[in-house]
Write a structure and sequence with these properties.
16% of the residues lie in helices and 17% in strands. It contains 7 helices and 14 strands. Bound molecules: calcium ion.
Length: 345
């Protein structure tokens, strides 16, 4: 098991070390600005985070935050959107490149042994449900490093995105998301922008649509039903990702702010971000560095919104205040992104 965990740790960090070499070549491909398919999010003051004793510690404490108005994509960046970017630029994503061990090992605990060269191949992490119930404290039992998995092949080399053009693009690293953003002339949201937008104008509600998970019995987001992780059922219509407008939008007209796939934000991840912020923040951009006490060797960016894999028995991350850190060079089968544009841009 130790070996498996080691491989997973390596795998989680493995996916994109060459991105930094390639990224500068794409900075000149700037497309015309576009605000179609974006919604105006009016500014205001809101309660960020929560004091709910049932929440994760990294969501506390609640504090007041003021946000200026901004534009936000009404839906996640889709496979079709990303295809246009790749067609225009020839961009190669993190998951499509051979990992560089010298860069990789800098993010791992000292003396981590080099994986066999057969493991250092392009690939990504794919959710692979076990055949039977498993302990929920060992994610290596349902995440599998899959050679050849990338945005074109979400479940591995034999899978494809044909028929899923309007699903969110996945297996995109934070670097990939920024390359796309640079090309289209937008940017990743701050965590505060994202959380403000996800609340849809409602005050202190548990979900983007209110406090009840299924109002009138209706599913409002693509999450996990059944027994996690071995037995998923599609009560909400989808086992995996869903088309980007399959569920009702929130009060700002934004689709999938929770569920479907996690979304990259621009902020560094610290577990104690909220505890360190001032009583009233104005347009906070997050901490100046990253620190996860549960994973001290790895720098991370904040992801928000949960995914089709979130289940109340495991992680109820389909709440606006839920947050997690992820390494910027990691893409998985349940992380995507959407972008924003500030009013002055
Ligand atoms: Ca589902």
């Amino acid at each position: 098991m130790t070996k498996r965990i080691g491989i997973l740790i390596v795998s989680i960090a493995i996916t994109g070390s060459l991105a930094l070499y390639f990224y500068p070549h794409y900075q000149n491909f700037i497309s015309p600005k576009a605000t179609s398919s974006m919604k105006w999010i009016p500014g205001g003051e809101f309660t960020m985070g929560t004091n709910d004793p049932l929440s994760m510690l990294n969501e506390r404490p609640a504090h007041q935050v003021k946000i200026d108005g901004f534009w936000m994509d009404e839906h996640l960046v889709t496979n079709a959107d990303f295809q246009k970017f790749v067609n225009a630029t020839g961009y190669i994503t993190t998951a499509e490149k051979k990992p560089d061990w010298e860069q990789l090992k800098a993010q791992l605990p000292p003396h981590t042994p080099k994986p066999d060269d057969s493991k250092l191949v392009p690939g990504s992490l794919v959710f692979t449900p076990p055949a039977h119930p498993v302990p929920l404290n060992n994610l290596t039992l349902w995440w599998r490093w899959t050679a050849g998995a990338n945005w074109r092949h979400p479940e591995g080399p034999k899978s494809e995105i044909k028929g899923r053009e309007n699903h969110p693009v996945v297996h995109v690293s934070w670097e990939d998301a920024n390359a796309y953003a640079k090309w289209i002339g937008k940017k990743l949201p701050t965590e505060a922008q994202w959380e403000f937008a996800a609340r849809g104008g409602l005050k202190d509600k548990r979900f983007p649509w209110g406090d009840e998970f299924r109002p009138h019995g209706k599913f409002m987001a693509n999450t996990f039903q059944g027994q996690f992780p071995h037995h998923g059922v599609a009560e909400d219509g989808y086992i995996g990702t869903s088309p980007v407008k399959a569920f009702a939008p929130n009060g700002y007209g934004l689709y999938d702010m929770v569920g479907n796939v996690w979304e990259w934000t621009n902020d560094w991840y610290r577990a104690d971000t909220h505890a360190n912020e001032n009583p009233i923040c104005h347009n906070p951009t997050g901490p100046s560095n990253s620190f996860d006490p549960l994973d001290i060797y790895t720098i991370k960016r904040v992801i928000k919104g949960g995914s089709f894999l979130c289940h109340v028995d495991y992680c109820e991350s389909y709440r606006p205040c839920a947050r997690r850190g992820e390494t910027p060079d990691t893409g998985t089968s349940h992380i995507g992104f959407r972008l924003v544009r500030n009013a002055q841009d």
